[in-house]
Amino acid sequence: MSEKYPAYKGLKLDWPAARVLRITIARGKANAMDYELHHDITTIWRLIEDDSDVSAVILTGEGRFFSAGGDFDMEKQIVSEFEMQLKLWKDGRDLVRNIVNCSKPIVAAINGPAAGGGLAAAMLSDVTIAARSAKIVDGHTRLGVVAGDHASIIWPLLCGMAKAKYYLMTCESLSAEEAERIGLITMVADDDKLQESAVQVATKLAQLAPTATRLTKYSLNNWLRVAWPIFDTSIALEMMSFGGPEAKEGLAAHLEKRTPNFNPFSPV
Q1: Which pLDDT tens digits describe the chain residue by residue (268 residues)?
Q2: Are the C-beta atoms of residues 137 and 173 closer than 8 Å to each other?
């Protein structure tokens, strides 16, 4: 393991079943992402692709959170530093591309609140299982930025345009049951059965004919490749919006625990 993967600070790796690699997001109480963790969850998929010992992957979070999104030190940097906007633009594109192009089946086990880059990885997984107590939210517009890190490429395919527009524009959170009902996730498991369910599904996928399974995934992911220009536009607009006044107000309001006071007039 140590020869194939670096010593990650915010990711824990283990093997819960034969040929099944489990990645656990583990950074602080809420598993919030700094740039290093975001970069690691972006680049690990290329290593997995080249690892002949891996036939299926589980992605989950440590403790009560799956991932609470970007930490606010990183958010402050994105708002104020053009160089960080470019770094996150590149990383965000690579995160989506690397997961879409990873041939190994990926099972997301959402054990708690999920947002940001962690949510992106979960929604792009091939099978997404959520604990009954889990919450899913894409909170971009609440912070005054465009929903660009993954949602435009996958949410309309999963739950339809009407639901995608509603949840992505309002930032309303979804319970696990509602996410399953609208087709955003694959299934719900009781909290104490989540990891067991994920291991069962991943083991089943790992035992299938590997070439047939991986090429089926490749074929189905062509829906996402066709939609790439849509995603590419959304993430570019997200980075552009980080430099605007709405992102500054959205971040300030969150840090000050108040309702944001956005200017009702927009040049768009």
Answers
A1: 458 999 999 999 999 999 999 999 999 999 999 999 999 999 999 999 999 999 999 999 999 999 998 888 898 899 999 999 999 999 999 999 999 999 999 999 999 999 999 999 999 999 999 999 999 999 999 999 999 999 999 999 999 999 999 999 999 999 999 999 999 999 999 999 999 999 999 999 999 999 999 999 999 999 999 999 999 999 999 999 999 999 999 999 999 999 999 999 999 9
A2: yes
Strands 67-68 and 56-61, bridge-based pairing:
unpaired
Contact 191, 132 (CB under 8 A): yes
Contact between 48 and 102 under an 8 Å Cβ cutoff? The reply is yes
pTM greater than 0.70:
yes
Q: Which domains does the chain have, with CATH numbers?
A: 11-255 (3.90.226.10)
